[in-house]
Amino acid sequence: MKIGIVGLPNVGKSTLFKALTRNDVDINNYPFCTIEPNVGVVEVPDKRLAALARVSRSKKTIPAIVEFVDIAGLVKGASEGEGLGNKFLHNIREVDAIVHVVRVFANDTITHVHDSVDPARDIAIIETELILADMATVDKTIERLTKRARGNDKDAQAQLAVVERIRAALDAGKRARSVDLDMTDTNTQTIVREMALLTMKPLLYVYNMMEGDTLPDELAAAPHVQLDIKIEEELIAMTPEEAAELGIASHLETLITAAYDLLGLHTYFTTGEMETRAWTIKKGATAPQAAGVIHTDFEKKFICADVVFWEDLVACGSRSAAREEGKVHTVGKDYVVCDGDVMEFKHGA
Description:
By secondary structure, the chain is α/β, with parallel strands linked by helices. The chain is built from 14 helices and twelve strands. The protein has helices at about 15-20, 45-55, 85-95, 120-150, 155-170, 185-195, 215-220, 230-235, 240-245, 250-260, 285-295, 295-300, 310-315, 320-325; strands spanning about 1-5, 40-45, 60, 65-70, 95-105, 205-210, 225, 265-270, 275-280, 300-310, 330, 340-345. A six-stranded mixed β-sheet has the order 2-4-1-5-6-7, sandwiched between helices. The protein has a three-stranded mixed β-sheet with strand order 3-9-8, sandwiched between helices. It has a three-stranded antiparallel β-sheet with strand order 11-10-12. A hairpin with a 3-residue loop joins strand 8 (about 265-270) and strand 9. Helix 2 (about 45-55) runs parallel beside helix 13 and helix 5 (about 155-170) packs across helix 6 (about 185-195). The protein is flat.
């Protein structure tokens, strides 16, 4: 699962990416410093792993991961090809969710593409460009579906009704995601997936702020994380002892966890002497679907699973003790896996 880091040029996108991934990237003070997207894998912090590994005396632990993509800065007119607009928009279509970095701090030595710091204006610029790009996609889709619908194609007629509702929201300056759609409907699923609309993707703001900066109420109302991205970069070169002595701490865990949740993901665990591992699944996944993350054959040949909640396993001290206390339950194909379940699957040969 990929999360795209987006925003205007020089707002701290690449610096944030460097802090998250510990990858060296070009973060010079000029627009379009990033041209090709940088990609990095980030571990999802989870204290439950270590606790389970101690119980199982595991030789190693394997955390869940999220992939972050540092995408080129967007400028006004990107939907019409300005700056690196076409490339930028294409790269956004490839990710599953968006982290929008917004500059709140003032610093005369760091160039702002619009020569002033105005986070609400900057957000509006990005939103407008994404909406305009989606309008172009929707208009082409309406044209195509209208021709099919005139031929009495029932699927096309149903999909056209969905797309027209999305077009009305875009016309009103709203994101496609704001439209209440029945995503259990096959036609809705099909057309939404085909269009891959930018404003349909989950969105989280990262406000790049320094100590003493204040956030306007209207910005605070949106899902967001506040970071001093420059401090996060400086922490890369420090030992934990040096950071503690200076009285500074990283807040990247908050962002990583929020981004993981933004994707609609949660975690189940397997644990044993060889390893304790966090497995990533979509919220609402059933036991067979969770088994399929390990191996597709496990899903196809699923029989049942033994499940114990991680806190119960840690409190009991072992799986056998947890079973004796009635904390281990055998579940079937309809069981919806909970965040924090520890699972052991049984499947056919």
